[in-house]
Amino acid sequence: xxxxxxxxxxxxxxxxxxxxxxxxxxxxxxxxxxxxxxxxxxxxxxxxxxxxxxxxxxxxxxxxxxxxxxxxxxxxxxxxxxxxxxxxxxxxxxxxxxxxxxxxxxxxxxxxxxxxxxxxxxxxxxxxxxxxxxxxxxxxxxxxxxxxxxxxxxxxxxxxxxxxxxxxxxxxxxxxxxxxxxxxxxxxxxxxxxxxxxxxxxxxxxxxxxxxxxxxxxxxxxxxxxxxxxxxxxxxxxxxxxxxxxxxxxxxxxxxxxxxxxxxxxxxxxxxxxxxxxxxxxxxxxxxxxxxxxxxxxxxxxx
Length: 303
What we know:
- The protein is an alpha/beta fold.
- Helices cover about 40% and strands about 20% of the residues.
- It has twelve helices and 14 strands.
- α4 (about 85-95) links the parallel β5 and β6 (about 100-105).
- α9 (about 175-195) packs across α10 (about 215-225).
- The longest helix has 20 residues, at about 175-195.
- The protein is globular.
- The protein starts with a strand and ends with a strand.
């Protein structure tokens, strides 16, 4: 039930008002798409010598992670890594000599991350994946400019989850977005200080709210003069290069699985169909066959 306090509303009424204002007449169809089951790809690193567990991941998450340049990168960082899906994608594309640092600040979620890496990756990849439990927002107080490429998939409003949970929908307020965006900014500005000059940072969320997406990236571009967003066309080049070298097997489980395109071709097609925003791309389920929501932006740190 919605309640009023200091002139504001909460719950489903507030949720509907906020997103209908942002998306206009589109909100009805977008909301219907968000209520449907999530679509998946499976990621499998099994081989003749080693049988491993499959991991199921939204194709939008695969698409975004594959846009982070990893060629010649010696040290990579997945700063908010749990449950581990994007760590698997980075593991399948990085150089054999590189080291991937996979971090999660929650001890409970970190244990899940450890299990995913152990059960899903072959020893050749898991042995060079260093898992830590640290607050990514303050990591830069200990070291700076130490990583060649960073993936930052931040905690977000996760409206798809809220919409499908009566408990969270009842508790929702507009202030939630303000609070979360402040946390996102702390993580993004901290991650930027961890990135080497000449390196790349991929920022992503599964949020619908513009304040958590382009709004957060806009703050980075304004504060740091060495931050430069990578054009969509260049992002596509990185995606195509990474997907061609991906060492795992991608299989379409429920995303347009009857299409004649290969799984890798579907990921490229999904990128091309993503909606361009001022600073990135947004994969939304009403126009992407159920994939997403997934916002991502690639930022280059000029020397």
